[in-house]
Design brief:
By secondary structure, this protein is an alpha/beta fold. The protein has helices at 16-23, 66-80, 89-97, 119-122, 181-191, 205-210, 215-241, and strands at 2-7, 27-32, 48-51, 83-87, 102-117, 133-144, 151-152, 154-155, 163-166, 170-173.
């Protein structure tokens, strides 16, 4: 598959997703929105879209004018029915494009917290092979409601909606399955002030470091999800050929 990545910050790259795609022979191109004059690809130039996280909010268009162009591009991608995996800010952007509300979460959620996946969501072909629960990395202040017509993926104690599946090929995840241990360290270097004080759903930097080995649980989730998305693309391609 030809994948394209929308990256919002230099320190929040595709991590485990890029590793898996490269290991399985898939290409990955980028639009880096933190660079001057970012250019979005033509819809014909990619098969799957990966939208990453970022420290900004979907409502920060005045501070980050490129958000308007990104939102317009995402609308085009959704109308075209492209396979899409959106994470954290990316999921919030897609949820908003689908008619959901994005607003501050009841409490900040930062650190490794358990997500329980609904039995109904685990029946969806894109989530085939996922466990009933996993302790994964979170780093967000905002959250989204379930888009109209979407399937809620799961919830944690600190956030009622941890993801959604919309249609056959669009997945939004509030948590960060793509993060590697070095990426988490880098995130703490840039955003560590948000972990300075332990809160109900905020772990300190020391607590996060103590749980860094848990990134493998997120890796397993995103690898299985990408494998399912690739299988979906191959099924659709074979159908068109036949």
């Amino acid at each position: 598959m030809r994948w394209h990545c929308l990256q919002h910050l230099p320190d929040e790259g595709p991590g485990h997703a890029a590793d898996w795609l490269a290991a399985h022979g898939h290409s990955l191109a980028y639009t880096r929105l933190f660079e001057p004059s970012p250019v979005f690809p033509a819809l014909a130039d990619f098969d799957g879209l990966l939208i990453l996280g970022g420290a900004m909010s979907v409502h920060d268009e005045a501070q980050f004018p490129w958000l308007r162009d990104e939102k317009a591009f995402i609308q085009q991608v959704l109308r075209a029915g492209k396979i899409t995996l959106a994470i954290c800010l990316g999921a919030q952007l897609v949820a908003q494009a689908l008619g959901a509300e994005v607003r501050p979460n009841a409490e900040p959620e930062i650190g490794f917290w358990t997500v329980r996946f609904s039995a109904k969501s685990l029946e969806h072909p894109l989530l085939r092979g996922w466990p009933e629960k996993a302790a994964v990395l979170h780093w967000h202040l905002d959250a989204f409601t379930v888009p109209p017509g979407a399937l809620r993926v799961g919830m944690s104690a600190g956030c009622t909606t941890q993801g959604f599946v919309w249609g056959d090929g669009i997945v939004g995840l509030q948590f960060h399955p793509e993060m590697t241990a070095p990426m988490v360290e880098q995130l703490m270097a840039f955003e560590g002030h948000e972990t300075a004080e332990e809160q109900e759903f905020v772990q300190t930097a020391e607590q996060i470091r103590a749980k860094l080995k848990s990134v493998w649980k997120g890796r397993k989730l995103i690898e299985q999800l990408l494998a399912n998305m690739v299988a979906l693309h191959e099924e659709e391609t074979n159908y068109l050929i036949n």
